[in-house]
Every structure is written in structure tokens, then in C-alpha cells.
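pasting input
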Amino acid sequence: MRKIEKSKKIGTISAVMLTLSIVVSYVTSSLPRAFINETKSATLLNIIYITAIVLFIILLFCRLIQKFPGLDLLDISYFLGGNLLKNIVGSCFIFYFVVSSGLMLRNFCEGLVVVYYPLTSYIFVILMFIVAIAFVNKLGFNSTLNTAAIVFPLVLISIILLFCGNLGNFSFRRIYPVLGDGFYNTFILGLKNIGAFGGICYLYFIPSMLKDPSKLKKIAVISVISTGLFIFLCVATLLFMFSFFINADEIMPLFSAARYIEFGSFFQRFESVFLLIWIISFGCYLSISCKFSTHIFNKMFKLSDMKPILNIFLILIFAISIFPKNYASSNFFEIHIYRYLRIAIGFILGMTILILANLKKKKVGDKN
Amino acid sequence: MIKISNLLKRIIIIIIIVIFIFSFSSSYDSLNIDNLAFVVALGIDKSTENKFNITFEFIVPKPSSEGASETEPVLESVECSSITNGINIMNSYLGKKINLSHCKLIIFSEELAKEGISDEIYSLINEVQVRPSANIVVSKCNTKYYIENSVPSLENLVPKYYDIFPNTSDYTGYTCNATIGDFFNSLICNYCDPYAILGGVSSSETNSQAETLDDASIKSTETPITGGRLAQNIGLAVFNNDKLVGELNAIETVCFLSIKKEVHSFLISIVDPQDSNSKIDIYITPNSTHKIDVDFVNGTPYIKIKLDFSGKIYSMSKDSHYLDADVLDAISSSCNSYLESQFSSYLYKTSTIFESDINELGLYALSEFITTTEFDNYDWLTNYKNSTFDVDINTTMDSGFLLTQT
């Protein structure tokens, strides 16, 4: 029985892949476009800047959580404010995971409909993902983790190929003017791009799932650096290639870049292969979100069986994904609301709980 | 009980599969090859009655007695108010759905291009099927006439010809691989202007005019070529924003491609320093040490272009001494002065006459600004016409190929 329990735990590599799978879904939809539209030619500078800030935050997170070995944010919330705070924090994160997955799914499927399924309703494309995730959930979370561990390297290869295959179309001088829209826009308003590191939110709940919780720091640091590099590579491809992302929007910008890759007259039209890899990775993201939502819910209400709840969350994700009236509404959410939600819940709420819990522990320790 | 639940699961799976089959079959049908008509070239003309006259070139495969597949181009035209409407009307007429995913060439008539083609470019880019690598041509004649005359003389397949001909820019520099993706990119950017391949159909009248021209000064319809195919693609169509403002001839296109670093080699004819009455042909290869700098002097751009080339002498005659360093130096300096005058004339022509930065020289000015707002306020595209150019050419001359001395 213990062996089975241990096999359900997440290893270091799987944990890193898990957090990186989250960023893949952001990057393949509209994240790079949002970066470039807002910080213009200073996008790469902005990415380096926010990666450094997130790295600092994550080191702080590791230091704060060090005093609660093997405990996740829910346990820490319980320690800080009892069941009430635990349920509030849990509900916030469930809301965030479910709503973000639903709307990301909608945006991604809208792109797929435009590109490949012109006569199919987006609802069926969304349903295809939902059904696939339902089947995956039946196989257990390990299957998702293993898939993510296999698919993410493929995604990385596809992105590197995208970068190298388009080298001929690059103008490296597009990084000028160095400050883009100015110092304030790059370094102050640009702080909102911190939301791109959404995978961090999942790290709050990972400690209790890890095979070796002492490796959390290693996992967190590798995840942040890899996420930063991954976003850098994707955004650099678009920035060096196109001048138009500053003035015009295009659905699935990386897909647009993939359409330019040609190796002679024989190797052309690579975008289909890329999209297939990104679809699988997006499926992993949905499955991970679903698993974490269920994990939090079960922990909140102390339920033992996870499987029936998983399908309920899938139905919720489906309902949210078909809720926006059109692509414009879901895109508005993704660009103007979602990232603030990520910052508010992922960074502010999570870190505040950890800081307060540390203060309480110190106070309790002092009294004792 | 277990059996009933298993049966239920199977029924659910079958239902799901059936739902997906039905929901995705419509998209599959629309992409089924039987229902599609593949366009290989799209010609867009200005129409007198309506707004556009659109010509579609389709390919119908026909069996060949020799076993190799041959194709027969089919041309259909429609008068319409927009490209999308034209496609829609043609779908109805053909009884098939037009597919642009294999469209290699998009041709605009000169008349339409002069009025501006941004709306058409935006619409075409908005179409998923149109590949960004599709070449864009401005035809000096009616586009239907251009397509009719674009019959390859050495190829069985028209699409293959459309695919291959822009590649000649690599080794002649007389045409350019101008794509709709690049055109769109340039249309939107605030430091460059678009360009397209200059196409046309030659006639006996234009050929007689061309006889008086220098070999390097030719352009589509003004060439000394007579052959099976009347359509020609020599030179470049220059745009200011979305409007056609001028044409470049062969040697100017070479200059354009050299600055863009998109030509691997080209041929020039220069005056033989040993005999001013004769000319020698030099095979030029650009080196990778091109340098472009943009400074601002009294608020106007001062553009320094330093280009390095290697040259080999093609022309051979009796008493050639191409191992003699003095002879090679003399040819080098003759070559330098010829190229400097060509590059300067090209740059001033595009900046002062066309007021168009097709070479994206504004890209080199970006580093002079701290923020994009500063650059936007400077308005590069308006100020480009006041640019001063300092062209420095350095050609290192080698002897000939197999023969070095006669």
C-alpha cells in the first residue's frame, strides 16, 4: 500500500515538467503577443527583468515554506486561520484554476477552428479536449505527468526549431529602441507581465505531492529559470521576425511564425506538426489544472475519492469555456483580467499567507 | 451489475465517437480533395464596371503518354466588389470550393497597385489558406494576360515554374523573392516600405525599345528577350506605404538585394580599364562584411553603407593578363566606381524620387533612439527623403575561372 502511495508522488523532473507545461499553454495562445504589444522592442529586456523578480519571489517562497516541510498552502492556511481561511484560499485557487483553464481552452480552440476546422462548431473542438481529459483522468495523474515529461521536450524542440528555422527571417535590430515604450512602461507597467509565470501557482500545492519535499527549492528555481528561457525564446522569435505584432493582432502568433519555416522546397508546412505537439501539451495543462482543482477541493472537504470530482471540474471547465459570447470576450478576459487574476491569486494571496503564517509561527515559537 | 456498467461505458464511448464523427465530418468534407479547386495564381485587376476583375489560375492534371504528369492551366475570371466575393462567386460557378493553400503567385495590375492595395493585402493575409511565402507580383499589363503568358518553357508544371523563378534572384539579382508575408510586414512597420516583383509581358514594340538599353538597365517588358514565354519578371515594383510609386530596373534590383544581403552572386559589365571602348564581365560575390550605419546630422539621416565584394573576371580575350596585380587593381577600381555610382543612384532614386525605404534602412536608425515614441515622433518614413548616402564599395578582384592569362 505504501509502495502504491509512493508511486503516486511526483518526482523532481515530473514536477519541473508540470510547471513548464502550464507556460506552454500560455505561450501557444496569446502571451507572446501581449508581451510585444505592451513593451514593444523592450520585450526581451522586460522578460529578463521579470524573470529576475520572479526568481527573487520564488527564493522568498522557498525560504518561507521551509518552515512548513511537506505542507502545502492549504495546510499553511489552516495553520494560520483555521478552516475558514483554508476554505477561502482553496476556493480562490479553484476559481482561478477552473476559470483560467476554461478561458484558455476557449481561446486555443477558437484558433484551432480558424486554422483547421472551419465548419465545425468550437463547442465540439472544446468537447474533444474535455472527453480526452476525462479519459486521461481515468488513467490516473501519473499518466498526465509522464505525458508532460515526454511532450515538453518535444515542445522545446519545436520552439528551438521555430527559432532556428526562422533565423533567415530575423532582424536582430528589432530589439531597438532599447527601452521600447519608455522606462515606466517597461519596468513599472511591465511588472504585470509577471503573470506569465503562472506555473508558480501550482508550486504552492506541490510540496505534499513530492516524493522528496526537500527538493522543492531546486524544482522551483529550475522551473522559474526554464520558464523565463522558454518565454524568451518564443517572444524573441516573434520580435525578431515581425514588425506587425506591435501594431496588429494575430490568433496564435507562434503558429504564424511556424508558417514561415521552409527548408528548401521539400520540407515545408511544419506548422501542422508543431500544432499537434502543442495540442497534446495543452491537454496536459488541462489535466494538471483539473487535478489540482480536485486536490484542493478534496482537501477542503476531506474527501477520499478523487475520480468523481474530476469529472465535475471538467464539466465546469467546459461550461466556462463556452460562456464567452465570442473570441473577443474571451480574449479580453485573457489580456485584461486573467493576468491580474494570476498576480492577485498566485503571487499576492499565496505570498501573503506564507508571510503571515511565518510570522505566526515565529510568534508561537517565541511564546513557547 | 458489472456487465451492465461495462455495457453502459461502451455505449457512452460509441455515442461520443458518433458525435465527433458527425461534428468533424463537415470540416473534413470542406477539405476533401474532391471538393476543392486549387488555385496556383491569383490575378487582381481594376475593373471599370465593378471594383475588381479577379483571375484564377487552376491546374487540371492530364495523363501523359510518356508517363510523366502534365498539367493544363485553366483560367477563370470574375468581376466583383471584393476578393472574398470573387472567390465566393467562383465557388458557385465551379461547383467546387476554391483553395488558396497552393497559390504561389498573387498578381496585382499596375493600375490597381497605384491606387493602393492595403485592403487587399490585409484580406489575403487574413485568409488562413494563403501562405506567407506566396510571391507577389505587380504586372505592367492586365493580370489575365500576364497569367496566360506565364507558360513555362522548360517545365511541365506551372506551379513548379512559379516556385522556381523567384529563386533566380540568388544568382542574377535581376528579380526578387518578394512574398506577401514580407509585403504585409513592411506595410505595417514604421521604418520600411513594401516591394514586389515587377512582371510584364513583352511585345515586339517593347523589344525594339529595349535594344537601345544597356543590359543592366532592362526591366520587365523592356528586355531584349524573345522566346516561347512572353511573361517576364525582371526588376522591382516599389511602394510607398500601399501605393505603387515606381519601378527598379535590373541593376537597381541588384543594388537593392545587395543591401538586403539577399543575393549570392551577380554579373556586371564594366569598362575595361585597358581599353575604354570595350567592356568586361565580372562575376561578383558579396562578402559577409557589409556594414550599414545611420547617423543624424542636423536632424536628417546620414547613411553610411560599406559593401565588400569579391569579383572574378568572366570575360576572356586575347592578351588578357589577369595574373598581373596592376591589371587586377585597375579592374577593381573600375568596378568600385561603377558599383558606387549604381548604388548611389539607386539609393537617391528610392529616397528622393520614390520616398520609399524598401531596404529597411530605418531598422539601422532604431538604435539611435531610446524609446519607440521618440522614433515615432521623428517619423522616419517622411524624413527618409532627406537622407544623405555615403557609399563605400570595396571589390577584391581575382583572376578568371579556368583561364587566368592568355
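fyi Chain A has one domain: 9-361.
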